[in-house]
Amino acid sequence: MATTERTEARTAAEILAGTRDLVDPALRTAVDTLPSPVRRIAGYHLGWWDERGRPAKADGGKALRPALTLLSAEASGGTARDALPGAVAVELVHNFSLLHDDVMDGDTTRRHRPTAWTVFGANAAILTGDALLALASDVLTVADNPDPGGTQRMLAGAVQDLIAGQLADLVLEERREVTVRECLGMAEGKTAALLACACALGATLAGAPPERVAALRGFGSRLGLAFQAADDLLGIWGDPTVTGKPVHSDLGRRKKSLPVVAALSSDTPAARELADLYHGDGPLEGPDLERAATLVEQAGGRTWTHEQADALLEDALRLLATADPVARTGAELTALARRATRRDH
Ligand code: GRG
C-alpha cells in the first residue's frame, strides 16, 4: 500500500522498519558510487559487510533521522518518496559524524561491533567520514528537489552546528566548572541541529510553506535535546547488550554529560565527592566507576535529567501541534518522539 493511503498510525518500531526498507536501497546506491576502499569501510560501519567485505547483517543504527525526514514530508501533505534524498542525506551526515566521533573519543565499540577506526585505522575512518559528508550534499542535487539551494544550505548549516557542538563537547571535557546551560548549548549543536534539519528537509522537499517548515524544525530541535538527555542517561545506566557500548561508558571518559553536570551543580555532599573523583587524572575504572554512577544519582543528576527529557519532549510535541500535521502523521511523529526519548513504556 502506498504510504499516503495508510489511515492507521504505525508504532515506532513499524515506522523505523519501514524507514529502513525505503531508505536502505537508496543509501546503498549512493554509497556504491564511492571509491572502493572507502566504500568498503562505509559498508562495514553501516553494518552491511564484515571487516573483509563479506555480506553481514549487523546493526546499522535506528534510522531515527531519516524517519523524521520521511514523516515530516508526509506531515506536510507530501509523500515519503518526495523526501527520500533528504532522508539519505541526514543519515549520511549522521554516520559521518559517528565515524569522526569514534576516532576523537577513542571509542572501540559502536553498534555492538569494533569501531571502524579500530579495524581500518583512524586516518581511513576519518577519510570515510569525509566521503560520506560529500556524498550527503551530492544526493540532494536530484532533478525533482523543489528547493536545491535551500536544502543544501540547511544541510550545510546543520553540519556547522554539529561541528560547533562537538568542539564545545571537547572543550567542556577539559573544563572543571561547567554549567547546565553550557551543556544544553553543546547538545543543541551536537545532536539537536541534525534532528531539526531532518524535519525541515522533509517538509521542504514536500513543498511545505515556511511556517510549517519552521514548526517542524522546532519540533526536531526540542526532540533532539530530549533525545540527547535520554542518550546521556543510557551512557551511564544503559544496558550494554542494548546500547552496544560498555557499562558506564560516559563516566569512564569523564564526559560532562547532563546527569553529571546537573549532579556536580547540586550543593550536596555527593556532588563534592563526585567532583573529587571526576577531576582526577586518567580514565575512571572498576569500583570508581560504580561509585561515580551512585554519586550522580544521589546528587539528583539522574532524576533531573529524566525530568528535563520529559519537559523537552512535551515542548517538542507542543511545537509539532503548531505544524498542524496531516492525518495520522501527527500520531506517528509523536510515537517516534516518545520512542526516541524512551517515554513509550
Ligand atoms: C569533523 C567536520 C567534523 C565534524 C564532526 C564528530 C562530530 C562533528 C559531531 C559528533 C556528533 C555526535 C556523535 C553527536 C552524538 C549524537 C548521538 C546521540 C548519536 C547517537 O545517535 P543514534 O542513537 O545512533 O540515533 P544510531 O546508532 O541509532 O544511528
Automatic annotation (TrEMBL):
Entry keywords, A to Z: Magnesium, Metal-binding, Transferase
Recorded GO MF terms: metal ion binding; prenyltransferase activity
InterPro entries: Isoprenoid_synthase_dom_sf, Polyprenyl_synt, Polyprenyl_synt_CS
Keyword Plastid: no
One GO BP: isoprenoid biosynthetic process
Family: Belongs to the FPP/GGPP synthase family.
Protein name: Geranylgeranyl diphosphate synthase type I
